[in-house]
Write a structure and sequence with these properties.
Blueprint lengths: L5 E2 L1 E3 L9 H5 L5 E3 L6 E3 L9 H5 L5 E3 L4 H15 L3 E6 L6 H10 L8 E5 L7 H9 L4 E6 L10 H18 L7 E5 L4 E3 L9 H5 L5 E4 L2 E5 L9 H5 L5 E3 L4 H17 L6 E6 L5 H4 L1 H8 L1 E6 L7 H10 L3 E6 L11 H17 L6 E5 L4 E2 L1 H14 L19
Parallel strand pairs: 6-7, 6-8, 8-9, 14-15, 14-16, 16-17
Antiparallel strand pairs: 1-18, 2-5, 3-4, 10-13, 11-12
Helix pairs in contact: 9-12, 12-13
C-alpha cells in the first residue's frame, strides 16, 4: 500500500461500540478484531470497498468515501426534483446495464417504467435499510433492486446479505401499510451473447474460457453453459467473427463510442486526447461521473467488464481514430473479481506492446493497476500519463481501413 494513499474506508474508534458486526459480515475478512479488547480495524490490503460493513454498522462508526448514506440520499432527492420520477432502480456494478437494457430487464419482470432514477453501486448488498425508508420519504413510490445472481456476486456474499435486508424491509413496509410491490428484487447477471449463425466452429472460445463455460460439439457449434458463464469477455476477444460477445460491451458499439468521441473532440481542437479503458472494479468515480474526465483532462473513459475483456485491437484502433494516448486501468491480480484466466490478459498485453513497439507507438500506451481503496490513485496516474502525452507532438495516423488485419471484420 502506497504511504500517500488516503484510505476509502475507515473505522471511527470513538463511535465504535465493539459489536463486531462488521467483522462477522465482511466477505473478504478484511476487518481484524482484537480478541482481548474487541477493537476492530480495517486491513486495507484485503478491503475491496464493497461497503457492506458500512451499511451494516448500527452506530455508523464506519466512514466511507464512495456512495455514503448522505450522498446517496442527496442524489435521490436531486434526481427526484429534476425528473419527477417515483421509481428508484438500484444496480450493482457487475450487472448495471445500459439504459436500454434496464428497461428491457424491467419489462421482462412485468414492470413498465418510462421514467426512473438509476443508482449504480459497487454492490447491492451495501444498501442500508435506513436508505430504503429515506428514499420513500423523499417521494419514491417504488424501489427495484437489480441484483447479481447469488453465485455470480463479485463480492461473494453481497447478494445474499442484501436479500436478507430486502426481505426484512418488505415485511416491515407491509406492516406499515405499503404495497407489496413497493420494494422488488430482480436477479440479473451479465452473460455473453452468442450468434451461432456467425460461428465457424474454430473452437477458440472453448480453449480460452477460464471457467469452462463453453463446450465443443462434435458436429455442431460450441455450446455455452450460461449457468457457468460469468461474462468476463475472454471468449469475445478470440472470436474471429464476433459471433460471441459480452452483452453491453459489443465490439462495434465500443468502437463507435470512442471513434465518435475522438471525431468530436478533434473538431474542437482538443489536445492531448486521452482514452482510458477502465475495468469497472478498479475505479469508481471516473466511470460513474465520466463528464469529470472530459472537463478536467479531455479524457474519455470506456468501461470494460474485466482485464480479460481489454481488446488489444481497440487500443490500436483508438490511436488511429485520433487519440494521442491510451491508458488502461485494471485491477491487480489480488484484487481481480474474476481471477481465473488472468494469464490470458497478460499475454494479450505482451502481444499488444510488441505491435505498438513495431509501430513506434509504445510510449503512447500505459497499463496501470488501480484500486478504489486508495482515494485519488487513479487521478494521480492519469495526471502523470496526461503530462507525458502532452509533451509529445499530436499523433497523426491514417484512419485504419477495414482491410487492416488488426481490425475485426
Amino acid at each position: 500500500m502506497n504511504e500517500t494513499c488516503t484510505a476509502a474506508v475507515n473505522i471511527n474508534q470513538d463511535y465504535c461500540g465493539r459489536c463486531s458486526i462488521c467483522h462477522s459480515i465482511c466477505p473478504y475478512e478484511a476487518i481484524k478484531r482484537d480478541l482481548e479488547t474487541g477493537k476492530v480495524e480495517i486491513d486495507l490490503q484485503k478491503c475491496q470497498v464493497c461497503g457492506i460493513c458500512y451499511s451494516a454498522c448500527p452506530v455508523m462508526a464506519i466512514d466511507i468515501v464512495y456512495y455514503d448514506y448522505d450522498g446517496l440520499a442527496k442524489y435521490v432527492e436531486c434526481m427526484h426534483e429534476k425528473t419527477g420520477s417515483e421509481t428508484l432502480v438500484l444496480m450493482c456494478r457487475g450487472n448495471s446495464p445500459a439504459t436500454g437494457e434496464i428497461e428491457e430487464i424491467l419489462q421482462n419482470e412485468g414492470l413498465k417504467v418510462d421514467n426512473y432514477i438509476p443508482l449504480r453501486l459497487p454492490c447491492s448488498g451495501r444498501i442500508p435499510t435506513e436508505f430504503i425508508f429515506k428514499a420513500l420519504k423523499l417521494g419514491t413510490k417504488n424501489i427495484v433492486s437489480i441484483q447479481c445472481e447469488n453465485e455470480f456476486c463479485r463480492f461473494k456474499q453481497g447478494t445474499k446479505i442484501n436479500a436478507q435486508r430486502i426481505m426484512l424491509s418488505k415485511a416491515l413496509l407491509q406492516q406499515l401499510g405499503f404495497s407489496e410491490d413497493t420494494l422488488k428484487v430482480v436477479k440479473y447477471s451479465r452473460k455473453v451473447v452468442y450468434e451461432t449463425e456467425k460461428c465457424v466452429g474454430c473452437d477458440k472460445c472453448v480453449f480460452i474460457c477460464p471457467y469452462g463455460a463453453i463446450e465443443a460439439q462434435e458436429f455442431a457449434t460450441p455450446k455455452i453453459t450460461y449457468e457457468v458463464c460469468v461474462g468476463c469477455g475472454a471468449c469475445a476477444l478470440v472470436c474471429p467473427h464476433s459471433a460471441i460477445q459480452v452483452k453491453g460491451f459489443e465490439f462495434e458499439d465500443v468502437l463507435q463510442r470512442y471513434s465518435k468521441s475522438a471525431e468530436r473532440l478533434k473538431a474542437e481542437s482538443k489536445f492531448p486526447l486521452i482514452l482510458v479503458f477502465c475495468c469497472q472494479w478498479s475505479e469508481f468515480t471516473a466511470l460513474d461521473d465520466p463528464k469529470s474526465l472530459t472537463l478536467k483532462k479531455k479524457a474519455i473513459a470506456i468501461e470494460i467488464p474485466c482485464f480479460k475483456a481489454l481488446d488489444p485491437v481497440h487500443v490500436v484502433e483508438s490511436l488511429h481514430s485520433g487519440f494521442d494516448g491510451v491508458m488502461a486501468v485494471v485491477c491487480s491480480k489480488e484484487d481481480c473479481k474474476l481471477r481465473e484466466g488472468g494469464d490470458t490478459a497478460e499475454r494479450n498485453i505482451d502481444v499488444l506492446r510488441d505491435v505498438l513497439k513495431k509501430m513506434n507507438l509504445l510510449e503512447r500506451f500505459e497499463l496501470f493497476t488501480v484500486s478504489p481503496r486508495c482515494v485519488g490513485e487513479f487521478n494521480q496516474k492519469l495526471d502523470v500519463f496526461f503530462k507525458k502525452i502532452a509533451s509529445m507532438p499530436p499523433l497523426k495516423l491514417a484512419v485504419a481501413e477495414a482491410k487492416n488485419p488488426c481490425i475485426k471484420s
